Structures
1.
Amino acid sequence: MRKLSSLLCTLALIAGGPAAAAGINIEGLARTCNNCHGINGVSVGQSMPSIGGLSEAYLKQILMQWKSGERFSASMGRLVKGYSDEELAAIAGYYARLPWVPVAQNTDARRVAHGKDAVERCVTCHGDTGSEPDDDVTPKLNGQWAQYMELELMKYRDDAVKMTHKKMRTNARKLDEEGLKSAPEFFASQK
Amino acid sequence: MNPVNRRAFLKAIAAASSASVLTIPARAHAGVKARVVVIGGGFGGATAAKYIKLMDSAIDVTLIEANQTYTACPLSNEVISGHREIESLQTGYDKIARRGVNVVHDFVTAVDPLKKTVATQGGRKLSYDALIMAPGISFDYTAVAGYSEDAVTDMPHAYKAGEQTRILKWQLQAMADGGVFIISVPPKPFRCPPGPYERAAQVAHYCLHNGKARSKVLILDANDSFSKKGLFEQGWKALYPGMIEWVPGAGDGKVERVDVASRTCFTGLNEHQGDVVNLIPPHHAGQIAVRSGLANAQGWCEVTPMTMESTRHKDIYPIGDACIAGELPVYDMPKSAHMAMTQAKVAAGAIVAKLNGLPVPQPYYVNTCYSTLAPDWGISVVHIYRVENNQFVYVKTAGGISPLDAPPLQRKLEAEYCVGWFNNVMADAFA
């Protein structure tokens, strides 16, 4: 049984942790996220981000910002308001412990090449390929869906909606129309 | 592992709040051979079958579905308007079969809830430990006088996607400029609450961009309000001014009789002749659910909030459009793909726990419905339900509709998210 016990400890660490302690059925809760974000948080819809393997701090922060209303979302705000802070923290922890899977997608070689120049302001925080962000609250971008990233940039460029990150606002606005397409394609093409 | 240890192992996993990704290893179950039968391979049934298998691969899961190819209803209004091909809504069952689900293309003729058996047209007889009942809806063709099952080609419902969707599209294409396209909406509850109103927008969009701008969409409604009403009316006015008219039940909108040959709809006091009549008949839970004794007097299956188990028969779990759930009577769960899938996941979790002798897991119910009024104009509604003291509670501090005064970016995002949502739900249910 010793082998089994250590296995159980590992399982508890992976799957349960604080969520289990708080009486949250985190597997059941996370299953509802799969509808839009894919099994294990790997999305197959181009406008929807993959979330499995993003950092716990980033996921927790964005969920809480949507809940408080300080950050605009088209629909996530209405969803997260239905859950306790503990449940949202458990979701962040759950997805952070899954592997990040860059999604293979069709990208335009010319755009990717142009994107390499367009992302000079992005890579200082997100890393050269988007895979090694500077800090815990900056998301990975390598192999994220290009369309999702373009839509996010459109949010940062639009004064009509409330976004939290000043630096992202500034840098997203500095992209020209071509950069708005090619920067996402560059990161989308990275493994 | 001996049986006692296996049980302790499973309990410990449950305590660790396990485990769909952490699939319970098949060999830990050498002794367990429970059988689950799933009736119906739509979003609800396919999701339930797949997730039971993911959670516990030792459970034998058989999905019985008459058709080899499934055609999704969500986004099918875009087939009518020519924005999408019907093939983009279709899928087979090969991928969930590869996950270990026994997929049987057959038609269930009888369920015996006492003997716990299912009989099929093809002569099969299957016994079950748990049964997922996900047959969708059956139309009541006799509810509107003059209508019948034979009339569905002349007055298509297009409310089960497939051939009916194509017929309605062809009729729209054949309609002359200045024509009247009637949509007759049945009394609530009905499948896809925003469906008829999204359809009106898609039809108007087709007409506006195909030389038929003088045409009109007339919605004859048995009800006095509808899902996302303010958002729809705002969108109709902005995108298709003067092209869409909605007649509520209180304004004599309920179609009581039709004359199929002349494409005429009779309401209490008026008659409306259409060039195309899209008659959505009243409906109820799929026939097999009704015949199995699961439905209430209104034709829908009531369920236990913690598990989705039927209130009428043990070990049967009616999910999807066939069930009636939520904080009734006001906040009923919408009959949507998304809702069916979260119900399926709750039922799957409850069944796997029960078959492994584990406590009932906490259920989570959520719905998201997107509607697309134009390529850059999407709107949505979100519903969250919790279970408190074994009752469904609609969470009023969350959910709700997209804001009415939203900037254009919100409408664009929701139109794009609708497509991303669709790709993900198709994969989550069928792949």
Note: The CA atoms of residues 111 and 190 of chain A lie 13 Å apart.
2.
Amino acid sequence: MQLEQMYQEIILDHYRNPHRHGLREPFDAESFQVNPTCGDEVTLRVRLTGSGTEATVEDVSYSGQGCSISQAATSVLTDLVVGRPLREALDKQAAFTELMEGRGQVEPDEDVLEDGVAFAGVAKYPMRVKCALLGWMAFRDAVSRVVDEVGAS
Amino acid sequence: MTVEPPGVRGQDTAQTGVSTTTAPLDVAAIRADFPILQRTVRDGRRLVYLDSGATSQRPRQVLDAERSFLETSNAAVHRGAHQLAEEATDAYEGARARIARFVGVNTDEIVFTKNATEGVNLVAYAMSNAATSGPEAERFRLGPGDEVVVSEMEHHANLVPWQQLCQRTGATLRWFGVTDEGRLDLSELDTLVHERTRVVAVTHQSNVLGTVNPLESIVRRAHEVGALVVLDACQSVPHGPVDFAGLGVDFAVFSGHKMLGPSGIGVLYGRHELLRAMPPFLTGGSMIELVHMEHSTFAEPPQRFEAGVPMTSQVVGLGAAVDYLSVVGMERIARHEHQLVERALRELSAIEGVRVVGPTETEQRGGAVSFVIDGIHPHDASQVMDDQGVEVRVGHHCAWPLHRRMGVPATIRASFYLYNELDEVTALADAVREAQRFFAVTPTAG
């Protein structure tokens, strides 16, 4: 059944016990994203040290309301990017976006996406892709506000 | 253009085409007219379609009418003198006459639009355009100090156009609140609607709560102070007998695709004397009387409000939908849906952890039942329900302020129609329990 493929135990774990949840200071940029079709929303803050794409992602904090997919995807995001060079974090963002927009045809690289590979099943449900990408869009948007070389999308 | 009578076999229909029988619907016979209801979804599951509030399915008779029109009589209406143009115009205007009769008004009081949203915008923009029109448009003018009253339970389509009108004209937007039970709070009707109120725009039946609003007192008060009443009838016209003239509203909108008809066709009703005085919204071909290089004059309504080549096969399809509904009988449809809602409220309320958002009694209540499940986001719940073949809508249903008022970010909505069986309500309740089991929030599962 596809439903179990979508709701992997990893996703439900992140949903029930989200990592790095809550809004923290200090932060360099904040982004508020909303999914207008369902009303889900996330506010996400990014703290960077260093400059440009050579910076390191020091912290990502967030709050919001949404379904298990959007909440879990944001929790996984923090695991993937915190403590990493920004350049690498953006590569992961691109890889995750490619996976989600691949309609189930993209084979995820576990070395790059770690727990993020659990979302492969979500990609088969086009109406839920936006849920998985909401936090990632907020991350990209926040970074683009403080790093000139990074565009908003 | 004749339309094959609906295949509701073995049921009495009067000569007028309007059924007066009180017998229950033969739902199996009705379902046989809807090809899509025969399909399965998600690995062979029986389709339980409970999203007619968003869009309804179409019977063979409607599909056939559109196709037959296109195969035999298609032409641009109100143009040309050839035979096809004549037949197409007859089909188009014939459908207008039947649609008008269906909602108890005169043929020239019916304007075709792209959808109901466009109908509301047509009135709102005509009101802005009144600022630069002649004295006949005086009563449509709005400015600072004037007020528009809506309600907190409006669909965005009957809220945002009025916000925008107020922004363009400097008028002020006010609204009726909603009670905890999901009813319109009319306790301040007389102070909210006063001499400076120019428009009162409300829904007949909430697309989320199912609440049917008491129009009589609203219309009486609005007319007492000279305000125009605009009715969103999208959720009422498809589901029971509605008579706009009897209700006394000034304008009303509804959409074809929610009442067995095609998408791309909406209807605006306007009292004739108002349509005659109202300036146009969209301008161009078909809506003119005389055109010079310097200026133009406009056609009488309804043509004044139908610029460009209109939606023809869609209008023919909607005419067939109205015929179908009339033969089945709107009273009977309303009674059938009442039964479905009664059972849905009973079965859903019996599930621990489920809360209905909206009236829990069936009086003055239509066929939309929204609810939330403790511990499960509506999006997640609907995914499991969909896996069971139960197709419901989740989200804020284009009524975001209402959801804020009711204290929920989103709801799950089941909405019914004439083709829904009583056992589909049980399938709904079973699917809810399955969602609770899947996400392990069933009280008994600890």
Note: The beta strands of chain A are 29-35, 40-49, 56-65.
